[in-house]
Design goal:
There is one protein chain. By secondary structure, the chain is α/β, with parallel strands linked by helices. About 45% of the residues lie in helices and about 15% in strands. The chain is built from seven helices and six strands. Strands 3-2-1-4-5-6 form a six-stranded mixed β-sheet, sandwiched between helices. Strand 4, helix 6 and strand 5 form a beta-alpha-beta unit. Helix 3 crosses helix 4. The chain is globular, with a radius of gyration of 18 Å. It starts with a helix and ends in a 7-residue tail after the last strand.
């Protein structure tokens, strides 16, 4: 009723925090979130630390959890993405915060100060269980490809396999038991 509307009108809108990498795909997603939620609706935290280290960590974890074929699949997808045409990305935005690692405890402090509604991960490093606990908010990972068959390998392989019903995006809630 009216009371609920008046209460809502006096509440401050809490943003969504986007933790993103620096790849063209991460920047594309940030651009989409900014357009859909408005520039005041998002706070961008950009991870710029050691991409080589992140790749090695990702590959070793992928091999350990899902096998060598899955790791090769992920590498192949990254190689294919390098040659695909990218949509134009609005590069005019500047991240609100630049970090070296998503798992730095200071990042959880930054997020706590912002008091966001939720956190969205966009093509950044994996969060460890301790960081997920420190953040203590709903965290969502959004990636192209429909889970489980095309998780992390995107839509190109679905098209190559003529499996068009599996082209899409997966959104999942992140907890200590779900790898991002």
């Amino acid at each position: 009723g009216q009371v609920a509307c008046m209460t809502r009108a006096t509440e401050q809108v809490r943003p969504i925090v986007i933790v993103a990498g620096t790849s063209p795909y991460a920047r594309l997603m940030v651009d989409i979130y900014r357009r859909e939620l408005g520039p005041d609706g998002v706070v961008i935290i950009e991870e710029r630390g050691g991409s080589g280290r992140r790749i090695l960590t990702f590959l070793s974890r992928r091999i350990r959890l899902r096998g060598i074929v899955s790791a090769i699949d992920a590498l192949a997808m990254r190689a294919v993405q390098f040659f695909l045409p990218m949509p134009v990305v609005d590069a005019a935005f500047t991240p609100h915060h630049v970090i070296e690692s998503v798992n730095d405890p200071a990042v959880a402090g930054i997020i706590a100060e912002l008091r966001p509604q939720a956190v969205i991960l966009s093509v950044c490093s994996l969060l460890n269980a301790a960081q997920i606990e420190r953040i203590g908010l709903p965290i969502f990972n959004v990636h192209n490809g429909v889970t489980p068959r095309y998780r992390g390998s995107g839509n190109v392989f679905a098209m190559a396999e003529n499996n068009f019903s599996r082209i899409g995006v997966t959104v999942h809630s992140v907890d200590a038991g779900i790898g991002t």
